[in-house]
Design brief:
With 171 residues, the chain is an alpha+beta fold. Helix content is 20%, strand content 47%. The protein has helices at residues 2-24, 158-169; strands at 28-31, 37-41, 52-67, 71-84, 92-102, 108-119, 126-138, 149-154.
């Protein structure tokens, strides 16, 4: 009986080690700080609470991958939230997020944009949702999957980015 329990314990530990090893072989995926949140104001208005159309935020990103010597296929899930602002009359939050892949030399290998429209229900001011997508990353000879990084953020104007940075410094 004791031997059986020990064998099961070792099997569980071995499978955890195998799982951790596989997870460690994926590229690091992260949401960028300033571009990870977007506050969009009504066009032609000052940055104030009464002029906010919506706020969006990437809450987290998770992924799994499969790879061979030529490519890394990564399935990503991005959890986001959108909050309706006081100036939002049409009940929509229309925005674009991006995914960028860099290698160990910090060279941008690819950058893709994904437009979205989040629709607020009549009485809802908050929406939580996720987007799933698959990325195929060309693999350079001699580079391990962990030599790559995947970054996500929202497309925004220079003014929106500056507003986010000021706001985040105050936190």
């Amino acid at each position: 009986m004791k031997m059986g329990a020990a064998a099961v314990g070792l099997l569980v530990l071995a499978s955890c080690a195998q799982f951790d090893q596989e997870v460690a072989l994926c590229p690091n995926a992260a949401v960028l700080e300033a571009p990870g949140e977007l506050v969009r104001f009504k066009e032609g208005t000052a940055a104030g609470p009464e002029n906010v159309l919506y706020r969006t935020k990437m809450k987290y990103v998770s992924g799994v991958c499969d790879f061979d010597e030529k490519s890394i296929d990564m399935e990503l899930s991005v959890a986001m939230e959108a909050k309706r602002g006081a100036a939002n009359a049409d009940g929509k939050a229309q925005f674009t997020f991006f995914i960028a892949v860099i290698d160990a030399d910090r060279k941008i290998l690819m950058r893709e944009e994904f437009p979205l429209i989040a629709v607020f229900e009549k009485d809802d001011d908050d929406i939580n949702f996720s987007e799933s997508l698959t990325l195929s990353i060309p693999r350079k000879e001699g580079f391990a999957p962990t030599d790559y990084s995947v970054y996500l953020g929202f497309e925004m104007t220079p003014e929106e980015l500056a507003y986010n940075r000021r706001r985040q410094k105050r936190r």
